[in-house]
Specification:
Shape: globular
Distance between the termini: 26 Å
Strand content: 5-15%
Helix content: 40-55%
Mean pLDDT: 93
Oligomer: single chain
Number of strands: 8
Amino acid sequence: MARVRDVRSLPKAHLHLHFTGSMRPGTLLELANKYGVHLPEALSGGRPPRLRATDERGWFRFQRLYDIARSCLRAPEDIQRLVREAAEEDLRDGSRWLEIQVDPTSYAPMLGGLTPALEIILDAVETTSRETGLGMRVVVAASRIRHPLDARTLARLAVRYRDRGIVGFGLSNDERRGMARDFDRAFAIARAGGLLSAPHGGELAGPASVRDCLDDLRAARIGHGVRAVEDERLLRRLAEAGVTCEVCPASNVALGVYDTLAQVPLRTLWDAGVPVALGADDPLLFGSRLAAQYEIAREHHGFTDAELAELARQSVRASAAPEDVREKLLLEIDAWLAVPVDGAEEPAEATG
């Protein structure tokens, strides 16, 4: 078998990573012991839980596990530890830019309120970025299961703290709950304040949810978006508009959207010209981090090193990184691809 380049050393941007879901399993066990939180076997058994969220019961179980894990984050030092370890894991996987997604509303009860919670999170991100060298920013996400007025409050708060490292505004939780248009005012506030629109759509719900994100929320990126392949016209629209899909193969399978990694329509999106940024989503629950998603592209979808390099470029181009950071990362990606493997060089260019 021919040698291939190490995807962990491929410079890349990570655009789809949830806050609590980024936690190391060992850290969760230590924090649960610290606070006397009983963890179910699914979180303490040493292996990723068996999940399937294609119905409401399955999603409820997934959300319950996430909520239990989140309940172990109770103090500023816990937040700092989580952010620091998430950065270390990303750096190990070749990430040079991370946009971590968080709904501070969920942490407010433990951290003294909504604004204090956000400030603690932003402080942790700023400190960690400075100390580790990883470019880190925050996407603040509203929840579909809360009232749209709450989303507007969150959008205003996100805009107010834009200069502290917030770059985007998202919409998470079960895509089958609530209509995108219910949150259009919140996203209008965020966009007017200079934040990138990055809602979830097109994973648990079908292509209509992707169209709604485009039409009602003016999405620049779509969290997941894989179900867009069920509508050829929608695929063309995404490609022509250059809207990036943040594809998370391991979570697509873990949540039952597809039965196997080979069924995740990564190659279909690529062939249609839709920009793709691979993401790990919730490694705590799905068992694999960023580099593993690139390995999936290689092993299950036949992506060559040149194509993997282009996937990494697409992640950088879709990021909110400053232009000089993007240019530096793109040059580093070219350098990764230029290193000979078995004495032969691969083409340095690939297009999606």
